[in-house]
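ok trying this again, last paste got cut off
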Amino acid sequence: MVVMFGGNFWIFLLHGFCFAVSTAKIIKSTFEQQEDSTSISEDKLLLVTTIWRHGQRNPVHIFEGDINKASDFPEGFGEITRYGMLQLYQLGEQLRKRYVIGLPLLSSAYLPQEIFIHSANVNRSLVSAQCVAQGLYSAGNAKHLDHLNLPVNFFPIPIHGVPVKNDFTLPFYLSCPRKEQLWKMVETNSGMMEFQNKTDFLLQKMNKNLKENLTLAIAMGIMDAIYTEHLLGLPIIPWAKDSINDFPNIIATYRAILMGYPGYFNKSEINLQKKLETLIAGQMLNEILDRFVQRANCDIHNFDDPYCDHAKGHKLFGYSGHDISLMTIFRGLGFDESNGDEQTLPGYGSCLMLELWQNGDFDESSTSSLNQHYLKILYMKDPTSGILTDLTSKLAVIVIHSYFAADANDFTQTTRVIVLNR
């Protein structure tokens, strides 16, 4: 299948191993934005993909010596809290403000053909997806179900998912032997060794106080539990108090190395880094960007077929996931920091929005029509405030390197280009 976007060929390759893979390399400061008198208000928003992290949760586990007990987490380990539900409902309201009230994209009331929500098959992600859906549509659905014995403004909206081992929003849990091979190689790479040296003092402190001999991976899990308790306002173990604010950066850095973020690999390790980011981020990036290209293609060539009728009906795709889901797409798009513009963990309810726009002077018969679609990248770190950060300017042109993996060690590369900015 070959489609076009921005005048460049997009080659979509089916996977032949355990994953469909592609990765993005960003060429910065090489794309000069076109001078265009057309205001953004005259341009047309065609399609949005959103990726969000679940709301506030309980720790996934407690540890030997933890001063908090299982009874302190009535919802259960790893489950979303009531406040976490509110956070994601507020995210839904923020999405409504932008895509129903502010921009003429979605209908006020839920229409099945307009929206598709995929959730990681984990309770906190599934509940978060439901909360977003209700926040997005409850204000417009009161009249539709008033004949049923249902809560006021409630409207059932389907949430889709796949088994965790096959879910690209949870790349750490994908069932893929190649991932394990690459991670084994990462254990001795320069970035991981430097990370271990910098955090050794903390690991030694943990071993001393917990009377354990912890591996790095287990230590990260304990830090995550302690920091989660801290965010819940619970007391934390005394020896962690002077380090607690460093935990998000430490955990994010450890995961970033496993994901192939480039700042942790030297020149001799670039091949390993590329394979890691391709494997971790490729499948998600492939699905999202291929959908954008197909949607633009339907406008450019004015295709009159059932596929384009279906594609034009879809307005918003949502992915309800985890902090690693956002870290995955950030790396896939070419960001060098795990939270877009900073090296830390994406917060509860944070949401990345990828918007496909059509220029206001779009003319399908014009020879320049191929260059009249562009992407915007917006990031909402806190659904309560609703403040959007425009990250588009950090990226100019995405050069997408697609790889076909016939076996675990054989990658064949093709290239395609997508223009982000107007």
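PB: full thing came through this time. The first strand starts at residue 2 and ends at 5.
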